[in-house]
Specification:
Helices cover 19% and strands 36% of the residues. It has 4 helices and 11 strands.
Length: 187
C-alpha cells in the first residue's frame, strides 16, 4: 500500500486518537504515518495470503470460480488470508477445506509472490487431495479439477494465479515438507 493510499485510509492514531501525518523518521527510508500527539509510528504492513494448488489425481488441479470481488467470475486455486497467529501451512489447509471442500496434505512450497504497489504477499503450496468432496463453497460459483491442457488461462483472476500455476506445472518447488518432517494433513 502506498503512503498516499495509507494516508487516505488511516487518518487517526490507534493509541490516542489524534490525527496521523506523513513524516520522515529515518534518512534514506520512506515517510511513515506518525501521530501528531504521542509520536506513535503507524507502519502500514502487507497482508499475508496463502494459496493451494491441489493435485486432484489423474494430473488434474483444482480451481474455483470466484463469487466475490476482486476477480468475480474468474478462476483461482483455493486460498485466502492468514489469520494473525495462524501457522501458514495450517491456513493453506484451512482455506482449501473452506473454499472447495477438500482435505489436503501439503507437499511443498511452490513459491512466494509479491508485486510493487500491491498489499498481499502470496505464499503458494502444492498439495494433494486426501479426502472431502470437491464443491463450490461460499465464495465460489463453481469448482472443477482441470487437466493442465484445459486450464482457463485467459479467465484467471490474478497475476499470482497464472504465475504460480506456471511454476507448479513446470515442477517448481522451493522445498518439500517430506525433506524436513511429516506432511501436514487437514484430517
Amino acid at each position: 500500500m502506498s503512503l498516499e493510499t495509507a494516508t487516505s485510509s488511516y487518518r487517526f492514531c490507534p493509541v490516542c486518537g489524534e490525527s496521523l501525518e506523513p513524516r520522515l523518521i529515518k534518512a534514506g527510508e520512506r515517510e511513515r504515518l506518525v501521530c501528531r500527539r504521542c509520536e506513535f509510528v503507524f507502519y502500514v504492513d502487507p497482508k499475508v495470503a496463502v494459496g493451494t494448488i491441489i493435485d486432484a489425481g489423474d494430473a488434474r488441479v483444482v480451481l474455483i470460480k470466484r463469487s466475490i470481488e476482486p476477480g468475480y467470475g474468474k478462476w483461482v486455486f483455493p486460498g485466502g488470508y492468514v489469520d494473525r497467529g495462524e501457522q501458514i501451512e495450517a491456513a493453506a489447509v484451512r482455506e482449501a477445506r473452506e473454499e472447495c471442500g477438500l482435505d489436503v496434505r501439503i507437499e511443498g512450497l511452490v513459491n512466494i509472490y509479491s508485486y510493487a504497489g500491491r498489499t498481499p504477499i502470496i505464499i503458494v503450496y502444492a498439495a494433494t487431495a486426501v479426502g472431502g468432496s470437491l464443491v463450490a463453497a461460499d465464495e465460489a460459483l463453481d469448482a472443477k479439477a482441470f487437466e493442465s491442457s484445459a486450464i482457463p488461462w485467459d479467465e484467471l483472476a490474478f497475476r499470482s494465479t497464472k504465475e504460480a500455476l506456471e511454476d507448479y506445472l513446470a515442477g517448481v518447488r522451493t522445498g518439500t515438507r517430506r525433506d524436513r518432517r511429516k506432511p501436514i494433513d487437514s484430517a
